[in-house]
Each structure stands twice: as structure tokens, then as C-alpha cells.
């Protein structure tokens, strides 16, 4: 059974703080993704990684960076948190190849005040 | 890049009725179209997917149809039950064997009323 875990379910940070969100998967998946989910906007891709130390920008990368030093761990970094980054953040992992199902983590509700 | 539009944004049906959610995509190279269900407070989970080499796929009460010419695909739920109440997301992707990035629609809130 695939397990994707995220470091926090709820997080409250102040404007300007550096924020780290961590995601860990236990299925040896090559691909990992970070999304933000906002009402009426669906799931929007921030960054994804298809291998260790590899990353690609998604649709809304501005204000974010990522790190993937180990295959099982994918971190999302908010360099200087702003109130418009208040959102639900979802991590996902998926194998490469034709088995394309993405497995999501439980999400982190981030509030920036 | 790919753009996926999804309609309606909300859908209310009576228990036992059918529900249909429609999506359109823009990139003719897309060849994989999954549907995810997200119950309140839970993570999205894949419920059904279709690849561009077939026009329809069924799994019990749910089915998905694909019209490649028109670039649209739909989710059909028959005999709806209260546990079908959730947000449903369509998505599109070009499977390459590598990253397989998904582009999601904006979601449909389905409410099944007793």
C-alpha cells in the first residue's frame, strides 16, 4: 500500500518567514509533485521532480523552490512567505512509465499571517 | 501548455439519478485522462482513467468517455449514492514514460441528496 506523508497537517507562519514543507513516499517512485489547492482553482502544479536532484517548474513556480536530495523525499520551500501563499499544499508521487497514477499525501494547510 | 476546462463547478442530483461531468482539453498530444475523487477533508484518489486508444471505459457505476476529435471527455456516474458526494477532478497528460505531469481541471462539487 502506497504511503505518502507530509510533515505537517496545519502550519501557521508569519509574512517573510522561510517555510519548509516536506513530503516522503515509501514506494520507490521516481516522480514527485507539489500542488496547491485553492477553491475554484483546482490543483495547480508548483514543481515536480522525475529523479533525484532533478526538478522542473510547473504552472505556478513563482515564490517557491524545491529540493530532492533523496529519492523518497521532496521538499517545498517558500523563501519568504506571503499572505497570498496561504493555501492547501498537496504532495504526490507516481511511478514512471505507463502506470501513471499519482498518489497524494494528506495535505498541509498553510496559513501566512 | 495543456489547458483543461471542467463543467459544471457544482452539481446536485437526487439519490439514484445519474451525474455527468464534462472536461475539455487543448493539447492534441495528450493521451491519458484520469479522474480523481476527493472526499471532504481527504486526499484525492484515482477512480478511473482512460487512454486515447479507447473511446469508453466502465467500472461498475462509473464510466468515462473520450472524444479525441472534439478534445473532450466525460465522467458518468449512474445510480448515485450519498457516498458519491465529493469533489471530482479531471486531468490530462501526455504519457512519455518519464515525468507524466498532469494538468487538472478546476473541479466539480457533486452533492447527492436523499
Secondary structure layout:
The complex is a heterodimer of chains A (113) and B (114).
Chain A: E1 4-6, E2 10-13, E3 19-25, E4 31-38, E5 42-51, E6 54-57, E7 64-70, E8 73-78, E9 87-94, E10 103-104, E11 108-112
Parallel strand pairs in A: 2-11
Antiparallel strand pairs in A: 1-3, 3-8, 4-5, 4-9, 5-6, 7-8, 9-10, 9-11
Chain B: E1 4-7, E2 10-14, E3 19-25, E4 32-38, E5 45-51, E6 56-59, E7 62-67, E8 72-77, E9 86-92, E10 103-104, E11 108-113
Parallel strand pairs in B: 2-11
Antiparallel strand pairs in B: 1-3, 3-8, 4-5, 4-9, 6-7, 7-8, 9-10, 9-11
What does this structure look like?
The complex is a heterodimer of chains A (113) and B (114). In chain A, a hairpin with an 8-residue loop joins strand 9 (87-94) and strand 10 (103-104). Chain A has no helices and eleven strands. Chain A has strands at 4-6, 10-13, 19-25, 31-38, 42-51, 54-57, 64-70, 73-78, 87-94, 103-104, 108-112. Chain B has 114 residues and is mainly β. Chain B has strands spanning 4-7, 10-14, 19-25, 32-38, 45-51, 56-59, 62-67, 72-77, 86-92, 103-104, 108-113. In chain B, strands 2, 4, 5, 9, 10 and 11 form a six-stranded mixed β-sheet that branches. In chain B, strands 1-3-8-7-6 form a five-stranded antiparallel β-sheet, with no helix packed on it. The termini of chain B are far apart. Classes of the chains: A mainly beta (113), B mainly beta (114). The A-B interface holds A 31, 33, 35, 40-45, 48, 50, 56, 58-59, 90, 94, 96-98, 100-102, 104-107 and B 1, 6, 9, 32, 34, 42-46, 49, 89, 93, 95, 97-107.
